Amino acid sequence: SMDSAPLLETSGLTKSFRSLVALRDQAIVVRPGEIVGVIGPNGSGKSTFFNLVSGFLRPDSGSVRFDGQPIERRSAAEIVRLGIARTFQGTRLFKALSVAENVRAAAQLRHPSSMLDALVGTPRLRRAARRVDAITGELLGLVGLTGRAGVRAGDLPYGDQRRLELVRALATQPRLLMLDEPAAGMDAAETRELMDLVDRIRRRFGVAVIVVEHDMDLIMNLCERIQVLAHGQTIFEGAPAEVQAHPKVREVYLGH
Ligand code: ADP
Ligand code: MG
């Protein structure tokens, strides 16, 4: 709700690559459990924003606060453990590993075991392993991949690979899930299924979601609020209906 403290808050976020300003003075507030869309033409800075928040890039200036804590100097691994998970535009699965192994590897990012734990099989390790198994089982069930747990990830149909990406992100038990073009390459039916899934995930786990997507139906139906980027700058932010009606957005993004 509007009165809860922000989960994510960026301010003045700026990143250049040589002379190109990929993101300029970006500011966004995401509250717990909210679902926010980020749209804009190719090259408008959407993935750069994701990379800055998830620790894959350092900002030139500006701040990223998560749960009130500055995180713009943290590593990607630390940020995962704080509770931010992201997916990538293309899939980044371990194609030679099984579906279950892919999910377990992700869950272990959140529940790392020390060398000593692993060597002596401490109770802490056994507890962590049980937790990882439970998370893996539940998530595969949620996306209908239980029967595929032993299949090589690379042998899954494309739609299932994208669902597995989503499960891998969730396996780190995030409070904020960032999805970069999750429906890319999906047909209309697969996209609808994915929308349902993201909504179910949000309700089941209470995570906040930021989604970058070109599919306007998906964005408009799924998101409570949308930020529109063009040339690295926020040109509008509002509810889906406001975004669709805004002349500048129509001109820049929707092309009419
Ligand atoms: P979007 O995700 O909205 O398509 P990006 O954030 O990927 O846009 O890119 C924004 C701009 O920054 C683009 O012009 C892109 O070419 C450039 N860019 C992104 N990442 C890099 C990088 N690592 N090195 C150089 N230029 C980059
Ligand atoms: Mg992108």
From TrEMBL:
GO annotation, cellular component aspect: plasma membrane
GO biological process, one term: L-alanine transport
Keywords linked to the UniProt accession: ATP-binding, Nucleotide-binding, Transport
A GO term for molecular function: ATP binding
Domain ABC transporter: start-end pairs: 8-256
CDD domains referenced in this protein's UniProt entry, alphabetically: ABC_Mj1267_LivG_branched
Entry superkingdom: Bacteria
Protein's recorded name: Amino acid/amide ABC transporter ATP-binding protein 1, HAAT family
Organism annotation: Tistlia consotensis USBA 355
